[in-house]
Amino acid sequence: MSYVFSPPPVATVAVADSPDRFPVRRIFCVGRNYAAHAREMGKDPERELPFFFSKPADAVVDAGETVAYPPQTENFHYEAELVVAIGTGGRDIPEADALTHVWGYAIGNDLTRRDLQLQARDKGRPWDFGKAFDRSAVIGPVHPVAKVGYPEKGSIRLTVNGETKQDADLNELIWSVPEVISFLSHSVTLAPGDLIMTGTPAGVGALVPGDVCVVSIEGLGEISTRIGPRA
Q: Taking every annotated instance into account, which residue ranges of this chain make up the domain Fumarylacetoacetase-like C-terminal (predicted)?
């Protein structure tokens, strides 16, 4: 078999303390998974069923890279997130078994064209242009569970130019990591290489060219992203 053109390279993210790379298959994102963030977005934080949106695999950006201010937005936001890297696939995964499917954890920054997202939300349209644009998923090195375990609590924090903007604890997740994995696997079959961005705390806000955004999660270190000139 031959292709009509060369297939694109596999999207990957770094692995902590290793030259290896983690191949990315899909990126799932949990919407409004911290109560305070739900409130700041004008929504009820009650524990209703989780919902998801997605980003393309090739939206991933390594920590330390510069991300150009994206086109078609005047309200470009940061969102600090814990990222779950799936190493063993499955469907209809029981919550009690969910963590056995996790290969590792990483720090993420779900970059968002907020004005486009809110316009789509208010019109009942998909969020793709607000969430799934080029270089919109900054994801730091994946730390294997053999080294970091399964974080259930600990600080998640984001600063812009040294000023704290988001400051919360992982135990504030409305839906825990095992619950998210189990729920998602009842809708789609998970596979090795899937990444799950688990939601952001309150305090989201705008970035401008020249800003340096740092996300830290207790036990996973920190990642830094500089915002470049408009693309």
A: 27-227
